[in-house]
Amino acid sequence: MTHALELKAIRKSFGDVDVIHGIDLHMEDGEFVVFVGPSGCGKSTLLRLIAGLDDPTSGDIVLQGKRVNGVPASERGLSMVFQSYALYPHMTVRQNLSFGLENMRMPRAEIDRRVEDAARLLQIDPLLKRRPGQLSGGQRQRVAIGRAIVREPVIFLFDEPLSNLDAELRLQMRVEISDLHAKLGNTMIYVTHDQIEAMTMADRIVVLRAGRVEQVGKPLDLYNHPANRFVAGFIGAPQMNFLAGTLDGTTLTLDCGLVRQVPVAPAPAPVQVTFGIRPERVAVSLDGEGDMTVTVENYEQLGAVTYIYCTFPGGERLTVQHAQQIPLRRGQTLGVSFPPDALHLFGPDDTAMEMTT
Ligand SMILES: Nc1ncnc2c1ncn2[C@@H]1O[C@H](COP(=O)(O)OP(=O)(O)OP(=O)(O)O)[C@@H](O)[C@H]1O
């Protein structure tokens, strides 16, 4: 089967620094794939290799069945939207949109059709005569996307396109880019360090860390079944709670004092493990009932949701996300319970341990 894009054993070094350590990935036609990971994990480097702005040290980049290593960026049929927008300040919006096509010596009528179609789609048609300096951040971002659209690329590449926008505008543009994907149906690859963008926009997420793929999957599969502690901690906000403990057979003893049976293949010898539970899966009781008691250190009442920051008697921290408004005060005791189907367990190498039920 021909993939829209295939990366085969891609490695990249700058001098003697290895940045990408051997990545294999494929993307299908029409897929929205998000590369997400902390700063410096190599996501922009990987995107630049795909775009043809840089060459891999080894490995193959295969675009619609054709190896494109060494093929110049302009001949790959891809369009990239940069974090900085990279608009020409002295040109009008119309000129910014048409410039690349003029360089390709496209007939005027075709250029005008593409520019007007893109402007209508992005609702920037009333702005065609303005210069970038006369536009808001969101409008500039739309022009940058428009410039990618008019090239009618086989794949769109986005490099952190929303990171210069304020929170409200980011949310709006997130929805707009998702809508755009639904309308155009192109393959899109989107790089971000923001796991919320990844969760909300992606058909599939690729989680990267230090130049390696940690896990690939649909957003909720990563959320519900993280392959390791890194993915568990990176996807989801507030972050999953992690509590250190020991597993002996099927008996889990946490440092915070909790002892319980867990549905895993019995460990042959006691091992150090990490217990994980998402903040919204911790059940709380104002009466102090439950698996353990904790002390409320701080809390945030947001109306629709309440965040409660607690500590166990030994000082280990626990964040609770409660879906209701409840009366709270600092220093009060709360009962907390961990429902059996909400547990995650990570082995000594931080890999998720399989639950048997
Ligand atoms: N031209 C270069 N020369 C040397 N090192 C580089 C070069 N470009 C990137 N790197 C290094 O490669 C690593 C990955 O960089 P990259 O920009 O791909 O990360 P990123 O995941 O996109 O990070 P960010 O979210 O901060 O942009 C970093 O450690 C960076 O310092």
UniProtKB/TrEMBL annotation:
Molecular function GO terms recorded: ATP binding
A Pfam family matched in the record: TOBE_2
Keyword tags: ATP-binding, Nucleotide-binding, Transport
Transmembrane segments: none
Residues covered by the ABC transporter domain: 5-235
Matches recorded under CDD domains: ABC_MalK_N
PROSITE patterns xrefs: ABC_TRANSPORTER_1, ABC_TRANSPORTER_2
Family: Belongs to the ABC transporter superfamily.
Name of the protein: Sn-glycerol-3-phosphate ABC transporter ATP-binding protein UgpC
Naturally occurring in which organism (per UniProt): Ponticoccus alexandrii
